[in-house]
Amino acid sequence: MSLVFDYKATTLLRGLMLGMHKSNQRGTGSDFYKKSSFLDEPDTSRLDLNASLTDPFEGLHVKTFRQRSKLDVQIFVDGSSSMLYADKIKHIQQLFDSIHQSVEAASDHFYGYLMTQSLSTIDSASTLQQAFSDIRPEQNRAESYIKLPQVNLPRPSLVFIISDFHWPEKQLEAMMTLLSSHLVVPVVVWSNAEYADYPLWRFVEVTDLETGKSRLVFVSRRQKNAIEQRYQQRKHYLNQQFRRFNQRPFWLTDHYDPRDMSRYFAMQ
């Protein structure tokens, strides 16, 4: 199955660089916009003979087109320790590759970064895999988000943030504020193994991947329900926070399908 999906960001497309996306920029494009008076847009190369000859007031008319523009697409991948849990890395690589292929298919500009203690440039899924293999399984909290102002974002871009968003409230709000001038797609990567797959009536070793600390927990039905409820509350909280910044998250749990991403943008 192809990993390419269709994306759009019409509100961002005001640049003069020609590309494949429909925009609001008038120019020498192929997308017909409207008919205008020749006095408003005096360009003889776009003269509409049919409208001009049939005008009872003998006015001249021209055709107005909208050009197609290029788009800057930025990907910021959370490299904190909790992203190493279960099969998250596999799904992140597939999503990264899907975005990369889609951007190339649209002839847009692609920029990828991994956020750990430092901000690293990532240009392919294989580079991302290698970078993840170098991450220590504790004491890594993607604190390089504070370096986002150093990234070259010369104009509003389409920004994907790939994370499980197990971040402190201040970190989440700070990053959303830094990117508030861009069209942001928060991709929330969760695994059922985090909250739904605990076996009942057994001791389970639970490890906090952010700190590396482990402890034994006896899982009763009450505790399992409490864990699941906690995640539902977290999901509700994240939806509310993203809504504050006029963003709609894409939820990725244990499976990625590029058709779901196409549907996501179709609803924008």
TrEMBL record:
Top-level taxon: Bacteria
Protein name according to UniProt: MxaS protein
Provenance organism: Methylophaga thiooxydans
Gene this chain is encoded by: mxaS
